[in-house]
Amino acid sequence: MTKREQMKRALSKGVLLFDGATGTYAKMLSGFPEGPVEQACLTAPQRVTALHKAYLDAGAAMIKTNTFAAHPGMAAEDEKQQSGIIRAAYALAKQAAEEYHAHVFADIGPALHGEDPAAAYCRMANEFLSAGADCFLFETLPDDKGIREAAACIRAVRPDAFIAVCFAAGPDGYTRTGESVQILLRGMDECADIDAVGLNCICGAYHMRSLLERLDGTRKTLIAMPNAGYPHLVDGRLYYDSDPAYFAEQTAGCIASGAGIVGGCCGTTPAHIAMLSKLIAHSGVEKEEQQSEAASVKNDCGSKILRKLRAGEKPILVEVDPPRSAQIGGFIDGAKRLVSQGADAITIADCPIGRARMDSSILACKLTREYGIETIPHMTCRDRNINATKALLLGLSMEGVRNVLVVTGDPVPSGDRESVKGVFQFNSGVLARFVTSLCASGEAEAFFLCGALNVNAQNFDAELKRALRKEADGVQAFLTQPVLSERAADNLRRAREVLGGYLFGGLFPIVSRKNALFMASEVAGIELDERIAPAYDGLSREQGEAMAIRLCMDAAEKIRPYVDGYYIMTPFQRFNLVAELTRRLKAQEEHAAE
Predict the structure, then answer these.
(1) Cα separation values, 470 from 286, 450, 465, Å
(2) 593 CB neighbour count, 10 Å cutoff
(3) Dist. CA 16–CA 514, nearest whole Å
(4) In angstroms, what CA-CA distances link 591 with 11, 140, 408, 574, 581?
(5) Neighbours of 105 (CB within 10 A)
(6) In the chain, is it the N or the C terminus that has fewer CB atoms within a 10 Å radius of its CB?
(7) What's the pLDDT band for 521 if we cut at 50, 70, 90?
(8) How far apart are CA 133 and CA 153, in angstroms?
(9) pLDDT tens per residue across span 479-492
(10) Which contiguous run of DSSP H or E holds residue 513?
(11) 48 in Cβ contact with 41 (< 8 Å)
(12) Beta strand pairing call for 345-348 and 316-320
């Protein structure tokens, strides 16, 4: 019987019990070496063996190798030391488990930030395979990057291996990078190489049980390994003091929610595992067979823009920068005028070029609530972490804002970086996935999700690849940079051939020669036809604005076959100019539709 078959047979008979947290328990033991606990496999092997046996004596049927952070640059100094730690750790765990007839899992934690996850996981997996491992646990993961590749790597060498994957999510069901754990579980359901999937870390037992009760479940064996409550800091060290009996009672609730494998993560000691083992044995707690397929949650979107697109109209979006102060009279009057002349929505930049302005989301809520104006607030990744972003999205949903443009955001100007720091916890793709999963969970109403497309990019092939990834992440439409050159128009045509989402062609009314030269020289992502700047020579302000409208109308006509709508940017708060351009563009579209 293969290892995979052995595990599945054991699971068919009842719940299997993992050990607790090797790392935090080791730190609690007097005499355990300082430094990364993984290095103790080389420097204090007898201590590691004693630690494993403490959990086995407590009733664990499965133990993890002491290798959670054995990546180069983390617990290992380099690949050579990594190999030594892995081989020593597996031998120690195997030796300890032998007399208990327990299973040993090769333990692999998340890859170091910045390293290719697939390469990191495959490197560790190959070391374990060489040592003889046939059970693998990828744990505390914030996402599924590299996991499918690693599982395939294991299967290629050892087809009968048992492979488990655990994601680390908070009580709200999201990982530290903003991934929905429900969507991650659903993705693992579709991977034939994975045998078991679930949650570990971050949550205490009560919150993990509550989270599992809200999830749709999985077709795989479900794993639950909560923390021993939440830590507190004493003399610079973290301590967990959750009562073992309480931990066991709440973790038993995870079993009632479908978990077939349970155990402990941070702060769980042999005492926690012993109480859980007794509770399982004495109360007859058995896992419930759970074969429900992951349901796909679909929320109808209340976006007026999306409704017009689906009706075959070409909506006109107009971007307005938010005010620099709390005086918003001019902004409100300008937005109202633009809408009266045919703008279908006002898009509001989020602190453009990294300078503080009034919050785009608050302005969007005001326009929506008080004036009934459709809005698309920009949301950058520069100034907020996942928690702040989620709070803002929930507020937008409450206020009836149904559109969002997600962008990475301009960096903070170099002169301000000593006092102002950009956050950049994630990029626009991760933010798009987060928005999509938040809506799929039912926590927020669905948003019409937009992204940016730079048709002026020097390497437009790479830009298209990024756009395709954004579509996979949930972006439904792209607003492009201004089309001010033949190359930009040609790139927009190419985008139409490749992308499946809606396209809004960017239009920027240049008002003078000086404005044209500034745009070409000082604004990133802009390319101008060489004939544009000379066209403004000798023109008055009024004549310059007339030229701006003519050039924009010509550009709109050129790109019309490739776009689903138009995206006009307002220069220097010239609302009257953009209102006239909007009026003419609207009239042209209405005429074309007749």
Answers:
(1) 43, 9, 9
(2) 9
(3) 73
(4) 68, 58, 37, 26, 15
(5) 27
(6) C
(7) confident
(8) 13
(9) 999 999 999 999 99
(10) helix 513-522
(11) yes
(12) parallel
Structure tokens at 261: 């494998």
pLDDT category, 523, cuts 50, 70, 90?
A: confident
Residue 50 CB partners (closer than 8 Å, separation 6+)? none
Q: Are 509 and 545 in contact (CB under 8 A)?
A: yes
CA–CA separation, 273 vs 55, rounded Å?
7
Beta strands in 149-240 (DSSP E): 162-167, 196-204, 221-227, 232-234, 237-239
- CA distance linking residue 65 with residue 18, whole number of Å: 12
Decide if 111 contacts 70 (C-beta within 8 A). Answer: no
Give the tokens for residue 245: 């009996």
**Class of the CATH domain delimited by 304-593:** alpha beta
DSSP state of 536: G
Whole-angstrom distance between the N-terminal and C-terminal Cα of the chain?
73
How far apart are alpha carbons 568 and 582 in whole angstroms? Answer: 8
Question: Tokens 């051939």 belong to which residue?
Answer: 497
Residue 409: CA atoms inside 13 Å, Cβ hemisphere, count?
Answer: 26
User: pTM of the full predicted structure?
Assistant: 0.61
Evaluate the CA torsion angle 22, 27, 33, 35 in order and state its sign. positive
Per-position DSSP letters for 70-132, written without gaps between them: -SBTTTBSSHHHHHHHHHHHHHHHHHHHHTTT-EEEEEE-PPPTTS-HHHHHHHHHHHHHHHT
pLDDT of residue 232: 67
One fold for both 3-283 and 304-593? yes
CB 119 within 8 A of CB 145: no
403 Cβ contact partners less than 8 Å away, ≥ 6 residues apart: 303, 305, 306, 345, 374, 375, 376, 377, 447, 448, 450
Is-contact 203 170, C-beta < 8 A? yes
What's the angle, vertex CA 417, arms to CA 414 and CA 420, rounded to 5? 135
Please state the three-class secondary structure of 568-579 as a single string.
EECHHHCHHHHH
Please tell us whether the domain made up of 3-283 is placed in CATH 3.20.20.330. yes
pLDDT tens digits for range 172-181:
999 999 999 9
Task: Please answer whether residues 401 and 445 qualify as being in contact, where contact means their C-beta atoms are separated by less than 8 angstroms.
Answer: no
Report pLDDT digits (tens) over 550-570: 999 999 999 999 999 999 999
Domain boundaries, given as residue ranges, for the chain: 3-283, 304-593
pLDDT class of 125 with cuts at 50, 70, 90:
very high
3-state SS, residue 63: strand
- The confidence score (pLDDT) of residue 483 equals 96
In sequence order, what E strands does 525-584 have?
A: 565-569
